[in-house]
Amino acid sequence: MITQSTASSCLLRLRGLAVAAGSRPLLSDLDLTLAPGERVALSGPSGSGKTTLLRTITGLIDPAAGTVELNGSCPDELRWPCFRRRTVLVEQRPVLLAGSVRDNLARPFSYRSATSAFPAARAEELLTRLGLSEDVLAQEATSLSQGEQQRICLVRAVLLEPQVMLLDEPTSALDEGATAAVEALVSTETETRGAAALIVTHNRDQSHRWCHRIHDLAAHRVEVRSP
Amino acid sequence: MNGPAGAIQLSTLDLIVAASLILVAGLLSLVLRLNLERRLALASVRTVVQLLLIGYVLKFVFDWGTLPAVAGMAVVMIVAASRAAVQRSSRSFAGATWLAWGTLVVVGLATTLTVTTLIIGVQPWYQPRYLIPLLGMVLGNSLTGISLSLDSLLESLAERRAEVEMELSLGASRWEAARTPLREAVRRGLIPIINSMMVVGIVSLPGMMTGQILAGADPLVAVKYQVVIMFMIAAATSLGSIGMVLLVYRRLFNDKHQLRSELIVRRSE
Hints:
The complex is a heterodimer. Chain A is an alpha/beta fold. Chain A contains eight helices and nine strands. Chain A has helices spanning 50-57, 75-78, 80-86, 101-106, 120-129, 146-159, 176-193, 204-210; strands at residues 12-21, 24-34, 39-43, 65-70, 87-90, 164-168, 196-200, 213-216, 221-224. In chain A, helix 7 links the parallel strand 6 and strand 7 (196-200). In chain A, helix 5 packs across helix 6. By secondary structure, chain B is mostly helical. Chain B has two domains: 8-64; 69-266, no CATH class. In chain B, 75% of the residues lie in helices and 1% in strands. Chain B is globular. Chain B starts with 11 loop residues before the first helix and ends with a strand. The model of chain B has no long low-confidence stretch (mean pLDDT 90). Chain A binds chain B through residues 22, 58-62, 75-76, 80-82, 84-85, 88-89, 91, 93, 95, 97, 107-108, 110-114, 156-157, 160, and chain B through 162-163, 165-173, 176, 256-259, 262.
């Protein structure tokens, strides 16, 4: 069992969560809380269930046991599309649809769960902060490099202003400069907007400088940091 | 010899002459070493045996003509059609045949009975001479639409799982995430019937109309029947494709707006 956050309020709470890949159990009896403003790293060897845990939290797959709560409510109460919009997942392998970058960024604002129109100016600002020019908006999304696509996926998630960001290796395809920009953007989102981030990373240095806590899933150990 | 309706009756010798046409194809296969002669022979024998059998069954059902006999024949046809619809798809999932069966029961009977009762005005409504051939045409075309749509939808959901799940994870409902694969699947199922409606009478004469004309019917009467048949087939194919796609969608996306891609399995050859 992994220990709790010491934060008094919590956005996301996992209670006794068990995660499996098909019939193969990966994690069991996992308790974890995320408070507003917190960035928590998930570490562990490949195959330890980090990615599956993020997919389970967002409800793309069912947990083998346990519950997930956002602000004390279960996803069924919040309705699943609304819950997912507030606990948005950015997967390691960027997935963009055919069409321009603008089409891709605007698409989630066409869903029924959207509560506002596509914020074009904010999109341009975020792209610039991540080292991408505004011109990229008109380009075919799938023709961009892996690193550019990874940053666009992050921009697409941040535009939704989620309460919790589930980030799976968000800088795996980025150079040092772009990595620093991504870290700064996520830090700003957590510190100024009170969002929380659960970040899968294999990079120990990154988790030390960026995150408040590091959960080692394989060792069932929590390390508290002061980034 | 002319029949009562003006049709020329065929003798056994006539059928043997027709079979000689296949013999020519078989000889060419041998000469060119295409290795198709065995399959041609098997296909020819199956054609004769299957058609003779169905001829006797139809004669029995027509002569008997009771509702249970017609209903029994219809059930056998629908079961065979639903199995064929699912078996043609390269991927499948548990329960797909039942969904195809349900779709074909509703769509097949609704369209066929609309034509026999409201348009042709058959008395009694289950008269097998009309009901069975029309149901056969509806099922034959509808199963093609269903199998094409099913194949497209399962292929699309399996290949594009990452895209569908990405949309779900950004707050799309299951309907919004599945919309593109669903639309493509229905379109794929309807392409053959729309294409055939576009060229009917220009490139080829439909089999039923040709049959009626050969049997001595007035071409304009045959055309009227053919128009009714084409609309009936188009409606059955459209409704069959749409119905099946919606049922598969409900089966593969649950109330938690999850794509249950683990249910999709590749059919072994």
